[in-house]
Design brief:
The protein is an all-alpha fold and 177 residues long. It is 80% helix and 0% strand. It contains 9 helices and no strands. It has helices at residues 6-32, 35-52, 59-82, 87-95, 100-117, 120-131, 136-143, 147-167, 173-176.
Length: 177
């Protein structure tokens, strides 16, 4: 474990916070669709980051993983606190057809599978462009890519998502609606 001086640790934290807050917030917001919850998630992620900053080699990768964990914890706590929905109801809802909620669940499942099967940066790129309406240039800047790289990698991810949905019998967006 490295030990950074307090000034150096604070400077590194401030720099990383300024560089990655938008990325962390976007990832949280794309999963919660709630600004206040996303702010709370960001706060928790950066608190954890500050506590472990001395051991972190690649901040972006660590923060992307941390935001996933904190979002998951957030939903588990919210579900426990409010008794929202248990898994058996979600599974039953996902099997029904023609319902908007079912479509949303199917899309969420597709995105989760996509996150599991692709590079962390590719998943974040897709979320920034498709969900948060970033341009390729803006998303690429956030993820350390050139605009052309971002455009190419986005297309690869979109094709994977399309194949996933086609494997489940969905050949157009209209079928989801």
């Amino acid at each position: 474990m490295k030990v950074l001086g307090i000034d150096r640790k604070t400077r590194r934290f401030t720099e990383d916070y300024n560089n990655y807050y938008t990325l962390v917030f976007s990832a949280a917001y794309s999963r919660t669709c709630n600004i206040e919850e996303s702010k709370d998630i960001c706060q928790e992620v950066f608190i954890r980051y500050y506590e472990k900053i001395e051991d972190i080699i690649t901040p972006r990768t660590w923060l992307q993983g941390a935001v996933r964990m904190v979002v998951l914890e957030h939903f588990r706590n919210r579900e426990r606190d409010h008794g929202i929905v248990d898994e058996s109801i979600e599974d039953a809802a996902a099997s029904a057809k023609g319902n908007f909620q079912d479509s949303r669940i199917l899309i969420q499942q597709a995105l989760e599978e996509l996150r599991k099967s692709c590079d962390v940066r590719d998943g974040a790129l897709f979320e920034l462009v498709a969900i948060n309406n970033y341009t390729y240039k803006e998303a690429g800047r956030q993820l350390g890519m050139r605009e052309r790289q971002a455009r190419y990698r986005y297309r690869l991810v979109a094709n994977r998502l399309t194949r996933y949905l086609e494997d489940r019998g969905i050949h157009s967006l209209e079928e989801l609606l």
